[in-house]
Amino acid sequence: MAVKKCVTAVIFLAATTAGAAWAEEPIKPITPPKEINQAKAELGKKLFFDPRLSKSGFISCNSCHNLSIGGSDNLKTSIGHNWQKGPINAPTVLNSSLSFVQFWDGRADSLKAQAGGPIANPGEMALTHALAEGILTSIPGYVTEFKQVFGDNKIDIDRVTDAIAEFEKTLVTPNSRFDKWLLGDVKAVTEQELAGYKLFKDFGCISCHYGESVGGGTFHKMGMVEEYKAKSPAEGRKAVTGKDEDRFMFKVPNLRNVELTYPYFHDGEAETLTEAVDVMGRLQLGKKLSDTENAQIVAFLKSLTGDQPAFTLPMLPPSSDKTPQPKPFEE
Amino acid sequence: MAVKKCVTAVIFLAATTAGAAWAEEPIKPITPPKEINQAKAELGKKLFFDPRLSKSGFISCNSCHNLSIGGSDNLKTSIGHNWQKGPINAPTVLNSSLSFVQFWDGRADSLKAQAGGPIANPGEMALTHALAEGILTSIPGYVTEFKQVFGDNKIDIDRVTDAIAEFEKTLVTPNSRFDKWLLGDVKAVTEQELAGYKLFKDFGCISCHYGESVGGGTFHKMGMVEEYKAKSPAEGRKAVTGKDEDRFMFKVPNLRNVELTYPYFHDGEAETLTEAVDVMGRLQLGKKLSDTENAQIVAFLKSLTGDQPAFTLPMLPPSSDKTPQPKPFEE
């Protein structure tokens, strides 16, 4: 059975890719980052999991970018301080280092610039950068670790976000079945998945979702062919540029691990991959996909799930008697 | 220096314990559990980290019993569904298997009986057991794993709590410096810590805080000698028995890892160990401790921090298209 499958895949593959070298495919395999400062990334991991970076002492980066469930929160929009309803769907932190800018509207140009945002956003973690610095400076275990990483005792938001970004760079997900196929393992994907990939290219999904992260490289309008009837007030890139023509321009999400990062779109309105593929086909490409085509593309997308980050749950250094108390029930 | 310390400790030790065999100390070293069903514990670990066991899809067992920070949430009282303010301080899950009953008021007689409580409590995770079963049954990865662990596909709350309890049994913290001392390593604790232990016994703290978990074995009244002026409405054991004499009777908390499980008492009103030791001395024992005595006992208590659970962050199986959606913004 395995042998038969293998042979079929080879034949089908030849037909699909018309003899193209793997290097010529528009999607590239993920390469794990080469230059990671391990000590800094370890510190960043602790900070990523530390709820003391929120006013409440309850919300950490990992609350909405939960690494047990694909680096997102699987909610339509996120929950912030005091159970505030967030304005937008939390993008996955997985492979975010591969995106050309951060946030749906691209308002941060680096992981480091991004990391400071939610900490101080009153609707998210609701702390201030000054208080974050004060809290961390009051924790002897952090003081020691910052010194080891940065050479002296200073703890400021620049170093905090630098460490978090270094950790986030490690959160790539290589070795998906599709990447194995790209690298020459013809048995790694099924016929249905390959058929889906062919449609993904033929229909033009690939024009936005390409490269190592299968997206994350451009802004595009949500609703290019058919208007997107949004329930959410989020306007995308317009909020950054102020230009009317940037209304509904969003960073194209990366599709790595998309099987895990439901619900979909900037407003989380598509609950399933089937729905997301259907909407994308109609609104972006003017195509109504058949059930078979849709199922094939969904199957292909599920082959993009890679190795999830595997590390020991970090242990956080305890607060000292001088550590400012969390204020969970203050506005 | 190390040698000198060692010699001093031996002399001091002889004086403190009056030549007693280690086996005769009222505090016993933690022994890791022997009979763990590993597959069941692995499943329980996933469930412990799974926010889909809450109505919101945001709160997991680990939210309030956070294993990165000592198995508690380091908040005065916990945050529940819709940011409700909990009535009581979250007890640590670490070493909870060693307690004679569960919850501050002892209303559950086993870890398994405890685990179902917060899932269905409208002020905590706010789900129903029926919906928890429905959600898990809709997730193919869980169906497979429950079958592997229990022999068939059935997923019910009995099995869910059984698995969570099995995981919780693994959450013991052996190898604290104090346990090493108990086991004969005279260098494992400092003179100050040993002096604190002697006071802990001489003053009578030991009469409630003894055994493997240094507590967790009896109910006692908060405010035995001097009345406890509570701001919290929690009445302890009275809520279970209905008897007036059980007002303010609480399960004696275990003091393992107490350095990590601030703030203290059932209402979280003591922010520091220094404060907690002072209040306990006055209210339970009628003793006003000197600063030196207090510092010695605090030092001893900090020697009770053991090996924290070390495991790889669990990866949760993704929902299917049939999985009931979380309802974070419903009451």
Which ranges of chain A are low-confidence, i.e. pLDDT below 50, for 5 or more consecutive residues?
1-21
Please identify, by name, the CATH architecture of the largest domain in chain A. Orthogonal Bundle
Shape of chain A: globular
Order of helices and strands of chain A: HHHEEHHHHHHEHEHH
Number of domains of chain A: 2
CATH hierarchy class name of the largest domain in chain A: Mainly Alpha
Mean pLDDT of chain A: 93
Assign the CATH superfamily of the largest domain in chain A. Cytochrome c-like domain
Key descriptive features of the protein:
homodimer, 331 residues, mainly alpha, Cytochrome Bc1 Complex, Chain D, domain 2, 2 domains, two-stranded antiparallel sheet, two-stranded antiparallel ribbon, globular, disordered N terminus, EC 1.11.1.5 (chains A, B), peroxidase (chains A, B)
